[in-house]
Amino acid sequence: MTAQALTPTLSDAELTLIDSYWRAANYLSVGQIYLLDNPLLREPLVAEHVKPRLLGHWGTTPGLNLIYAHLNRIIRERDSDVIYITGPGHGGPGLVANAYLEGTYSEVYTGIGEDTDGLRKLFRQFSFPGGIPSHVAAETPGSIHEGGELGYALVHAYGAAFDNPDLVVACVIGDGEAETGPLAASWHSNKFLNPVTDGAVLPILHLNGYKIANPTVLARIPAEELDALLYGYGYRPITVAGDDPANVHQQLATAFDEAFDQIAAIQRAARLDGEPGRPLWPMIVLRTPKGWTGPREVDGKQVEGTWRSHQVPLSETRTNPAHLAQLDEWLRSYRPEELFDETGALREELRAAAPTGERRMSANPHANGGLLLRDLDLPDFTDYAVTVDQPAAGTAEATRVLGTFLRDVINRNPDRFRLMGPDETASNRLASVFESTDRAWQAEIEPGDDHLAPDGRVMEVLSEHLCQGWLEGYLLTGRHGLFNCYEAFVHIVDSMLNQHAKWLFSSSHLPWRRPIASLNYLLTSHVWRQDHNGASHQDPGFIDHVANKRPEVVRVYLPPDANTLLSVADHCLRSRNYVNVIVAGKQPALNYLTMDEAIAHCTRGLGIWEWASTGSDEPDVVLACAGDIPTLETLAAADILRHRLPDLLVRVVNVVDIMRLQPESEHPHGMSDREFDSVFTTDKPVIFAYHGYPWLIHRLAYRHANHDQLHVRGFKERGTTTTPFDMVMLNDLDRFHLVMDVIDRVDGLSSRAAGLRQEMVDARLAARRYTREHGEDDPAISGWTWERM
Amino acid sequence: MTAQALTPTLSDAELTLIDSYWRAANYLSVGQIYLLDNPLLREPLVAEHVKPRLLGHWGTTPGLNLIYAHLNRIIRERDSDVIYITGPGHGGPGLVANAYLEGTYSEVYTGIGEDTDGLRKLFRQFSFPGGIPSHVAAETPGSIHEGGELGYALVHAYGAAFDNPDLVVACVIGDGEAETGPLAASWHSNKFLNPVTDGAVLPILHLNGYKIANPTVLARIPAEELDALLYGYGYRPITVAGDDPANVHQQLATAFDEAFDQIAAIQRAARLDGEPGRPLWPMIVLRTPKGWTGPREVDGKQVEGTWRSHQVPLSETRTNPAHLAQLDEWLRSYRPEELFDETGALREELRAAAPTGERRMSANPHANGGLLLRDLDLPDFTDYAVTVDQPAAGTAEATRVLGTFLRDVINRNPDRFRLMGPDETASNRLASVFESTDRAWQAEIEPGDDHLAPDGRVMEVLSEHLCQGWLEGYLLTGRHGLFNCYEAFVHIVDSMLNQHAKWLFSSSHLPWRRPIASLNYLLTSHVWRQDHNGASHQDPGFIDHVANKRPEVVRVYLPPDANTLLSVADHCLRSRNYVNVIVAGKQPALNYLTMDEAIAHCTRGLGIWEWASTGSDEPDVVLACAGDIPTLETLAAADILRHRLPDLLVRVVNVVDIMRLQPESEHPHGMSDREFDSVFTTDKPVIFAYHGYPWLIHRLAYRHANHDQLHVRGFKERGTTTTPFDMVMLNDLDRFHLVMDVIDRVDGLSSRAAGLRQEMVDARLAARRYTREHGEDDPAISGWTWERM
Q1: Domains plus CATH for chain A?
Q2: Binning pLDDT at 50, 70 and 90, where does residue A17 land?
Q3: What are the residue boundaries of the Xylulose 5-phosphate/Fructose 6-phosphate phosphoketolase N-terminal domain, all occurrences included (chains A, B) (predicted)?
Q4: Which of A307, A446, A721 sits opposite B55 (nearest CB)?
Q5: What is the pTM of this model?
């Protein structure tokens, strides 16, 4: 439908006010891209006033500013609680301009005042060394969204809206961004949004027609196909189109009124009338020229309304007088003298166009989620402990135990905790959570469906992008959550993790941004137990990816059993501003530590397991391990050694927190050389069985003294559909091979132990034969337990 | 529209034939999941005939088999050239069953014959140690698609269809997969498919209603929303729905006839009548029960038609006699005695249901692309060389030079080479390609558009997923290409790269799969030159990700200048079965090597640059570098050292192929210890300036003797919008810091060079001050060149 009204929505005065405010934002945007000095053009513009390097993106900016000005009217008139998500985040100057016009910028950055000097600084700092990024970023007040990598605007918007029933999240989606996969999938998020307990998302698809050098798909399909597409996504599109400002202002005002009316009606129907089912939510399609109000033509080529306006329409302003004159004309076309008073401040009458206080989108606390963050009400995790009378004798499914804890976390925090996963919550054995909640589902429900409800706290969709993006949006607005995922497929969100980690690192340097809850991953169905799925599901490399991020913001935990997993999970749920990666198995596996031991072990991050070691003095060899399966194989190897080579002094070390392996200079969790040496010795062989790609352990530990004696076994990208023990054998991580490694590495042992070594070779062959013949592992191997001698 | 016909499409005989064939495929599928022995149930079924570990996915399989059987009819009747892409790839047993029924399986795997013993082996090997994966994979004849990670079926289908005008790519999309981002974006690929020169893609959206434990979004929206969505994507959906086999057979036959008729009509109109514009392509929506024809109920719970049929509907067949009886009943419901003769071979009359020879989808050469691969007709890359009279004196934009070469590659190979990129081809300075071709674009074209045409060879869409997926599909069907991408955002396809690398590794062990062209990445707009974009665009970690893959299939090149880039690119375009990652800058940068020198250098992969070294004997220090910016800074540091510490013997080593740094035991390109030592010495400090995260160099080199003396500088995740030199200073990779590193590391030098060290500290401060003040780098630094002394 097209926005139309019989009488104009905006009075002349209101139209003038909005248009003036838009001009002011556009003026400040162009100023940021171009000007070093002379911010209000009170002197004739000369080349020296212009930045030597012109870095920024104009094309999308006037559209962003237009939407912002119109949302301000809605907020003022309706006292609405609105935040603004900027999909085309390279339009950073526009959002900075608006935060400045609202006064928020000067409140947050006190050095940049609302006067001519402040304007000069505002302009100069943009994309300038030591200044601010050219994109919408953590540094931008009012943003929860780094706009550099496109695709995540809409999914962030939904994450922000969940459990915020009074919030409207206005989300501008660029037509370039709309071509990305994550954005294309995000539209269907409305099947997971409950109109009763969640807020509203108002997508604004901005069709300015072009991306960097190309037209966009959605701008070049017939209108009826576009409308059908959006209806198919579950929206009722309201179209606004034009290139005459006054006309577009009226249309857009009408469209926003309609959209907010519809949102109010939907929420009223759902909340007061108890109307069930999924409503068609309104959205806006805005067709305006790219680079609108900028130079029409430059050097004889059309710029406004084309891809040429994407970055800086005039590129030679320092050297080409014609370009400089055009810049001057462009800036003056906004009539700055009408917008700013003699001190350089926005004229009083224009200030009325913006809301005040926390209603300003740049100062809305939802966009600085740490301000709203309330601690989780956590049950005592030790209440969920499994009883361990003896190490490595009984078994539990670690994630199933964790599920009971999460069940009660959900119970106690019905408004601020969500569990995300790509349809794997039950598969990952967290099904206890369904004793206290359901899966969020706003689409049709049929008999026989399992735990679906509009207000479910578990969010399952077959898209890691949506799980990650929803959770990011939810955390950035001050809530808590956990993303459970198959280990291999979390690589799908590698790039999203990058951006979130950068955001956390940047925001930790901004005193006005309050810490938010950590992004917690539970990676299960991991590389060693993909019996069903084989090679495509086997990849432990996410840890390596995470380890490349700033050490200030990343933590990686490999709890070896159920009690350590509980302890680690409790710690992660209490932490702030981190990315926590927990890797834990879901299959029945041995328990090693009592709850008290688990807490002590996880607090240290790693430790010597005396009960599994022979002798407590300086050992002959260290068997180190990190991860549940490597721990199992290491202990089984230690078991063979203590029986067969009882004189060999073996020390077993388990590592939960692999960042501990680094020097303290490299990571806050790192160990001093003295600490490291006291555990790993300075000169004894260390056979390290590791969950993932072996070189990560080398990388973490290479600066420590004993690095030359470190021999790491891990995943060598050898995988297929096979049995658990066959998998470890394929990668030389099995108990028999670890014993062989010990024999090969301990000086003087190989002759003494030649017979044992051959036995190990034979044992591997026999195990493989058994597996090939029976289709399962030899029970003597898979049923191994540690017995007191 | 719903498929209906006044007279039934299928005669009774044809219906019986198709249904029998479907039953045979279903029987073989269930047999693979369950049976170790007694493959034709000629003895009473007992527990020992059943596999001890039941691994596989039944739910999607009957639908895959149904579609396969109906496509066979179309191929027979129309002599169509069709390949089958299996989105729900965990339905592996179905595709294996069909390849076996067609005889292809026994041709390829001669040990598995078309008799009872062959059936026994076929069943036993499935998901069995030493056998075949449970998913559709490289091992599956007829597949170009590993079905483990969902999301890429449709984009692979389009990649396969490009430049294959006579091919129809039937692509089954599961409704679970349809929730993923990459799949959601892929629908719009029809805006890039030219009906004149490309083949057709026939999407078949299989709505069986459930994913692992949840319903699916597209199955639970109203039919009118789904139809609108698909029309909005540019398709004309034909719906088939039901749970009565005979009825569904008739509907589906009618639907396929309609779809193939429409495809033929579209192609005729475009090719013969020259009808312009983008047609609405047909597609099929197939609604049938999940786990159709399997057990209705198990243990009192509904299974057929629910998520419970996703994997193995009967899980206790070894221990629960009721389950075993149900399995027996289930298998016998397909009436195997009617399907297979006494020798165990498919009955002769049923063989008529399948096409023959290369028309069999399991034997179609397009699905074994190496069979069709023709070498590129490559121009002589040395013709494009830049002239280098003197090293490090003149400049070129390396990618712009490469663009001229690629222009002629495209010219000479109009049917088998495509260049993919997310709207960055011009930004990445490859614009010369537009002298010989356009951007592929089948949507609306408006005046002022830049080089758009239906038959363009450059494919630009703002989705790295689509670029990667199209190229994968194109390569897997025997063609060539290059993906140019911003370095940071190639992480978006980390997970796709994983699956492609696994495919290459697996297929290299299958003698019947012929090698395909390598997947070539050109990563430009790299971490060090993101002046416009800042932190969000700065991430060199893709190299680390690639380095975790099997060494047999990955190569990484960092050519330092234009001529080395040409040499590397030529090499990569000729290579087979690799993933080649090329990182190269697009900005003006110094040229170091003549073409002859570049060829020699790239052939060795790394080498000592004598012209930049002082003395040719054993040096006091090695300055190593990899990447264009590190090379620049290293040479500038060497320049300072030769002037200021002329007695210090400095060796400059440049590395193009970083896999060379590994031991030869670890990678085919690795160096022996002797080779490594002869370049890097055994005991002298090596200051290594590296393009990416520094620890990768440690990881690659840690087994070599001189590792303890290796000091690596690289990207430390310190970035923002700033000048190029400020970026290297932020990360201590700048020339001044490298000189400081030399002074700190060379024994006895620090006292001699204390003054110079302080000068370097001061130079860094001065450079930073200059940048902060002027907004650009000091020209004395940015304009540095190497002068003959």
Answers
A1: 12-368 (3.40.50.970), 389-590 (3.40.50.970), 606-782 (3.40.50.920)
A2: very high
A3: 10-371
A4: A721
A5: 0.97
